[in-house]
# Entry
Amino acid sequence: MVIVMTVYLKNYKVPPFLVEKAALHIDIKNPLTTVYALLIVKRNPLSDEKKASLFLNGENQKLISVTMNEKLLKKDKDYTVGKEGITIKKMPDACLLEIVSSHNPYKNTALSGLYSSGSMLSTQCEAEGFRRITYYPDRPDVLAVFTTFIYADKKKFPMLLSNGNLIACGDDVKSKRHMAIWHDPHPKPTYLFAMVAGDLAKRIDTFTTKSGKNVLIEIYVEKGKTNDTAFALDAIKKSMKWDEDRFGLEYDLERFMMVATPFFNMGAMENKGLNIFNDACVLGKTSSATDAGISFIERIVCHEYFHNWTGNRITCRDWFQLSLKEGLTVFREQEYMGAMHSEAVERLENVRDLRRRQFAEDAGAMSHPVRPDKYEAIDNFYTVTVYDKGSEVVRMIQTLVGVKGFNKGLSLYVKRHDGQAASCEQFVQAMADANKIDLSQFMLWYSQSGTPRLYVKSEYDKKTLTLHVRQESKKPMLIPFAVGLLDSSGKDIIGTKVLNIKEKNQSFVFKNIKEKPVLSLLRNFSAPVICNYDYTDDELLFLLAHDTDAFSRWEAGFKLSMRFLTGMILKEDTPDINKFINALKKILKDKTLDAAFKSFVLAMPSESEIGLELAKRNVLIDPEIIYKKRRAFVSEIALGLKELCTKEYRKLKSSIKDTDTGGLAMGRRELKNLCLSYMALAGCDFKTVLAQAMRSKNMTDTIAGLAILADMGAKEDKWKNAKKKAFAAFEKKWKKHPVVMDKWLALQAGVKHKSALKNVKTLLKHPSFTLKNPNRVSALIGSFANNMLAFHDKSGAGYEFLKNMITVLDHMNPHMAASLAKQFTRLNDYTKDRQLLMISTVKKLASLKKLSPNTREVLGKCRM
# Structure
């Protein structure tokens, strides 16, 4: 059995030794790569471990030699070797160390460290991958200036890339090998190291900074794919400009490089000067990528670029501070996307995703604070809590101090901590000092897990409104609570006022309110909380029709929809369906509203959102009942909107070009396809859907058509042949394009029908699928595991299937295996029969002798 050590935040100590400079000589041969690491090591004056030995992390490599100050050290006498690294016993205050080791990147299926990715060799060092490359103090608070020398066969690897600026390059004609030397002048931790060797195509452009410096932009992709990088190139240039304009932050190297790789566990990595991307996050055009995919490219590109300052120039002291860089950078990414497109729509997208995914995480066994206090495998904490809730925590600071105050705070943070490994306290303190406010209570957002709840009651008497707010959390937190008041005509009475909730119980008085208002609460989703107020159905309909705040208006419709759905499931009273449909008709016909906003309002809650709502009420989840009731409700909505949706679909179909990619066009396309899905449920001819799926030259429309065919074809015979025809045509056209075929795999795995598991098992043998590629695994197995109806089939077959997949993947790629295992962390929310089946499955997995720490930690958190 693997022995797993728990790491605790409270045990943090500064490193006893620092690395001032690191020179890496990386000699690539077949199959082994040999690394000569020359390190200038000095004792840390801030450490109280004055006689400490030096520990260098290292795994999955062969140690060849250790030299100190040109003297060869002897194993056992001068140093010891363990499974996790080497310990050098007697250390002077300063020395030159040379570590020589070798490893085989072609056998590295974990995709951590240096590994083979298609035709190239690539790295991924966050969080602890560098220790697979060489022996080193692999922790984020050890920052060094790196110089990297790469040697390789020129024909096989004509491009040799690393962090920083290219210093020199040259050929050895006799050996047919060549070399490149890269120097990064900015100190960085090992997780930001990157190296790529391959035969790649390159797209070049330039960007001129605010100070007049020309930056070379290079995007490296597999040959034949440079035409698919236009969106990524446009995004990086806009990101550079926006960061200068909003925060005054310029790019700081001679060149900015991006590499698209087909094998990558995450979306992308912000390595200093050499960002490495999952190719699905770089490659795309309207014929091969959906609007969501194109938007995601822009989102990921800007996110990784913004890390240059919030993550690279200022990094995190330890992995518990992960949200310091990720939460802050997600916030910056969201601000950028709102500025480039629609602030209201961007905010709704962020909130919807947070409540679907992070609220669910908070409600399950993986619940943890934004800054966790312990971990076994840090890879398991790259979570929506750390990223998205972390972003909401940063946004609350901006709400408290204003945009100008936030900019001042960030400027002070950069001034104080540039070139350092910082903590969450230091970031918040910079914000507090710049704005002369006390944010000590606010720090509870970093240390308390769970989703706070606010219970609001109101009293109105003699032109005075009193709001009574009760906060439910472990300790009272500082919560910015934005509210508005609407009069009977729908006009704002006080605009938006931010109330600072600091105590368990607080009351707020509004005077000179001439009539009893309708409350607009938690405007712009001012805090990541659950807000409870006893609205009447008519009040929600009023807010849906009149509220000037986009979130509160959408929220009113969402609450009404949820009342219908939970009422149907729990056999309780439901609102008037005709009033609701009429309200939706008004939204659909309103020419002043953005098409994307209409889509948000008209889209009904998902099965997972309904399940989360039931869990909040301590009602056990039965996916079959949820699916049936939701299907009946959405079908009734579709019938009520059939005429309007048909009219809107035809109008939008004729007004949007396939190649239009602006935010306005994307919103219209989204609304058009939502209308088409309602038309299908309301009984339209399948030929309309089939024509869109088969003939459209826009991938968004094609996938929307296929999704409707997959849904309808699983239940109605007349749609089945259309579905088979469209899916076969798509496969024939795109079978040589793995990123596009991922969509084809995902659609079939996500079908709401018992046949989904049979389809998935068949597709495991499809030429487009391989367990070695995380994108394929996510598309097929991940999509099935998120298919609530099929995965939670009461036979337990879905659980058994996932157990088998996790067992195989855990030996190949623990990161992927642990990610899939998280599907069991909310097992107590489901019906008793499903609970027993999941508990049995978890126990079988946990009993495996060679289970990775990643997967074992997740299974250990399942509450059984």
